[in-house]
Specification:
Blueprint (H helix, E strand, L loop, with lengths): L1 E5 L3 E8 L4 E8 L4 E5 L5 H7 L4 E6 L11 H8 L3 E3 L4 H5 L7 E2 L5 E4 L2 E7 L8 E5 L2 E5 L2 E2 L2 E2 L9 H12 L7 E4 L6 E2 H4 L3 H7 L2
Parallel strand pairs: 4-5, 5-6, 6-7, 11-14
Antiparallel strand pairs: 1-2, 2-3, 3-4, 8-9, 9-10, 10-11, 12-13, 14-15
Amino acid sequence: MSWTFDNGTILTKAALVGEYDNNAFVVACAQTGRGVIIDAAAEPDRVFELTDGVEVEALLTTHGHYDHLRAVAPVVEALGVPFLLHPADYELAARTTPVAPTALADGEVIPLGETSLLTMHTPGHTPGSVSFLSPGVLFSGDTLFPGGPGATQYEGGDFDTIIKSIKERLLALDDATEVYPGHGPTATTIGKERPDLPEWIARGW
């Protein structure tokens, strides 16, 4: 499954790849075609298909879990672009890919032609989880999904931390902000998820 979304500022192409239905994204300036890949999770040939017509300048990664990294090496080798990851997930990622990452910092702006992506450190699913914000669209990785936070029972996960990331950072965004998560074909909005925060806290997941 794949789809394309163009809001006039950014062009987003996405495909579900691998057995965990990971989202691989290509995000580009709608005016210039300069862009990035977010999460080369698996099936590199399908990731390459998304890059058609886009001048890819970097591979961004939302976190270091293996299911988000399995196409990193072939994508970096083929396109000659840097692999960007938050340093808190370097050790985790090294178990899956031999590619040396370039550091992503909280607040770092990734230029995309006439627009940009803002890097937001949103730990909790992993220590180095990040989300990427473009005008009107959030790429939330495994931090926020339709219906609640990402899983925290795996190594490096912490429920209180992910709730803090969601409450203080993501829910501070405009209600109309569209949210594209790291898995599954369904998007949501900040406004749709905001009222359910107390329920997530009460249930503990």
